[in-house]
Every structure is written in structure tokens, then in C-alpha cells.
Amino acid sequence: MKTILSTLIICFLAVAGIAQTTSTVNIMFRGITKTTNNYEVRIDDKRYFSNTNTNNAPTFKVSVGNILTGTRILKLYRLKSNSVSANANSQNTLVYSNNFVLRDGYDMNITILANGEVQFSEVISDVNMPVSTGAMGMAAFNTLKQNIQSQGSQAVRSEKIRDAFWNSDNRFTSAQVRQLLVMVSSESDRLDLAKLAYAGVTDTENFATLSNVFNSTTRRNEFVEFVQSKSDTTPATTTRTLISDSNFNTLVTNVKNKWSQSLKSEALRDAFMNSNYYYTTIQVRQLMGLVTSESDRMDLIKLAYPAVSDANNFASLYDVFANAANRAEFNDFVGSKGGEAVNAGVKAQMTVNNFNLLMTSIQSKWSQALKTDAVRDAFVKTTNYFSTDQIRKLLTLVTSETDRLELAKQSFRSVMDPAIFYQLSDLFPTNSYRNEFNTYASAQTGVTVNTGVKTPMSNTDFSILVLTIRGNFLQLLKVQAERDVFANPNNFFTAAQIKQLILLINAEPSRLELAKLSFKTVTDPENFNQINDLFQMQASKDELAAYVKNYQ
Q1: Which of 534, 499, 503, 538 is nearest to 519 (CA)?
Q2: What is the pLDDT of residues 101-118, one digit of tens each?
């Protein structure tokens, strides 16, 4: 009897031991070097650091084997210091936390990007024979999508998608399900279809990410409850609620009050990483308008995606990028999330020669009515795109403020650099017109112009600003810092303060660029001619004088 009992116990323990399967997690730090933010990854409280990349390679891989399968906890911290000697410090900043499922027979690749974005992808373990996920192939799926998109009726689209999910021969990834769901405008139908799709999904651990296809909090919560009832994985978005108008306005004000673009970007990065709030696509657009660097916008807009409440509208943000390469990258990102890239056509700013011909043509019109019509035609033509400076020159050909305001609004469709569109406010001497323009520009770009009295920066704040810029070791960093300062619509300076700032820059071409940028911030333009003392070349003085004359 004892022998039999011992044998049973041994067998039970053996079975239990076999059940404890393990897999490998590959942590890949991509684009993280000594000059970028560095990170600490914790998996079940074991720590792995990007700054141990001693070769400063663009991709640094850390493989961690023998991790038990099942639900694991990942936390990402931004290091306060890039020095390896500081790694023992546990006071780093938490920027991401989530669960992931490690499956038997699969390894998990976790990619950490320099902006703090975390990406997960599964690969079959080397010890396992290749097996098919069973998801519908790309060609077949594209055919299905085209068939559904060709249906003019929403009811017919829903029926087609329902048939696809009902078909037991069809299997889909969560990304494919997303692409099908966003073709349906009714959130009630979307919810029914999402529930129907679950049984045929190959990556159920990613299914929870579909929660942001629902704008309605009620629908989203019902979807989250459904996912929770089907698995042990709780989606990270369950704690988010749509940010209130008052909290959003506070956020916008706080970001605007940051004097440099780098601080603005950091504040927005923190906001998007905050797991408490959702943002609408319109709100994200407004926040992007506070950032002038397209590179920073790209990092931030990718970071914003998980926090967007209306993911089906996310693709419309393509036009916050003027650069063709950035638009292509954004569209690729949208596609990777299961969305549809829209308006992928490249905006090309009108060339100098063509713009000069346009200006000459309009100037030759003998009446204001004809000039106004010609400017209107230029802005309405869908193939025309202009810089803010070109729009300024066209608007100055029109003397009526009423017509100028109407044309300014029409021109926004064609502007290539919407972040500085607000600068056109000085074309309206009448307060009522200027206020109306500022309200319109703010609604479109998220940038609010200080419409009150221009008050120069206080001596205390100015002294701090000078010390901060002087603290930049490289001249190019000083130049960029001053660009950010002069681009901030809430910063104003005396001519003497501007002169002191530009004196920190050595190269005359950079001084000339900054002098032009600073003119709109000067509170005593009658003294601006003292800036000429900064230039040794007469050509630089003449170019600045011509700029000031044309600006006025």
C-alpha cells in the first residue's frame, strides 16, 4: 500500500513539474543610445537596463530564458541617470506598466523605443516546429476588405462582416478585426460584431486593445467586461476615463506655459503616459499644435494612440505633418494598428518661381474685387499649398479686413506649417477682427495668441532664461533653444533683451535667423534697430531691414 501511494505521489509531482513550462523573453532596446533617454525593464521585479549597451549599438538585445509561461508583469522606468553606476538606484520614473501573456511554445519579443513606446510580438520558439497561426492571409483579407468597402449601405457592411466572423473557416488577428470594425459606424453594431469576432481571433491576448474603437464610455465598458469574462487579462485601458474639459484646459495651459519646446514635449509625454485619461482625436490635434518639431510630434502621436478614445478617427491626424516622409511614417503606423491610411497624397509647397508668378498675376489686377477673387481662387484650388509666410504675402494684397479675415480662414486648408499660422494675427489692426482670427486659429491649431498688452519678460525670468540657454554646451543647442523661445506666442522681450539673447550665438547667419524670428516678440520696435550692432556684414543688416519693412 505504501509503495502504491509513493508511486502516485511521485507521478503527481512529475506531472506538476511538467506543467511548469518556460519560454524566453527577448528585450530589444531600439534607438536608445548614450545621448537619449535610457530605461530599466522589470519583468516580475527582475531588472534589465538599456545603458549596459557598452557598444552604443542602435539595437541592443537582452535575452532572458526560463521564464514561466502565463501572465507576467512588465514595468518600464525612465532612468534618472544614464550612468551604469547609478543602476542600483530604485528611484527611476515609471512610464509604463502592463501584463503580457507568455505562451508555451512561443517566445516574446519586447521592443523598447527611445520615446518610451513598448511593442510586443510573439515568435515560435526555436525548439518548436513551425505552426500556422491560422489567421487569414493578407491577400484573402484584402479581398474581403475591398468587398465590404464596396458596399454603400452600413447595414449591408455589418451583415458582410457578421458573415465573415460566423464562418468557422475564418480566423483573424486582433489587428484584422480592428480594420473590419472601423468600417461600421454604429457603435452598437461594432460591439455585437466584436463579441462575435472573439471566437475566431488567433491572438486573444491582444483583443483587449480594441477597446478604443468605441467612443461611448458605456460601450467601451461593456466591451472590457466581455474581454475580462473571456480571459484573465485585464486591458490597461480599463482605468481610463475621457478627460474633462476643465482638466484638458488646465493641461493645455500648463503646456503653453513651458518656455521651451523640449519642456512642452516632456509635459505632453507625461500626459499621454498617464493611465487615467482618454483624449479625443480633436484634443490630440490641439496638443500637437503646441509642438513645432515634427520629429517630436511623431514620437508623441505614437505615444498618444493607446490613450485615444476614438481610434477610428486617428488616421485624420496625418495632416499635422507637412513633411512627406513623416506622413508616410504616420500612415505606416496607422496601418500597423489596423487603421486605414487616409489622404496619403503628398502636399508640396508652391515653389518660389510659381509663387512669384502668382503674386505678379494678382498684383496686375486693377481692382480690389478682382484681387480678392484671385487670392480666393488660389486658396480654394486643392493642389495649392503655401507656407504661412506665402499666405501673409497674398493676404496683404487685399485691403479690406473683412475680406482678409475670410481669406485667412480659407487659407488654413493649404498651410504647410500650421504651428505658426497664428502669426498672421498682426494682419488685423481692428481688435474685433484680430480676436475672431485668433479664436479661429486657436481652434484649428491649439495655439492661443496673447491678445492683450505685450509685456516684456520680467528681469527675474529673463535672467533664468539666459542662464538656461548659456548652460547649453553646444552652439547648435543654444540656437535651437532660442528658436523655441522666440516661437512661443506668449513670450515678449524688449529690444535690449533680444540683443542680449542673440549675443549668446556666435555665427552671423544664425544671429540673422534669430533676429528675424524675434521681431514679432519685440515690445519696443522703435528700438529694434540696435540689433544691427550684432552684425559685421552690411548684407546681414540690409536683409534684416528688408524683413522688418515687409513684416510691418
Answers
A1: 499
A2: 888 777 788 988 888 888
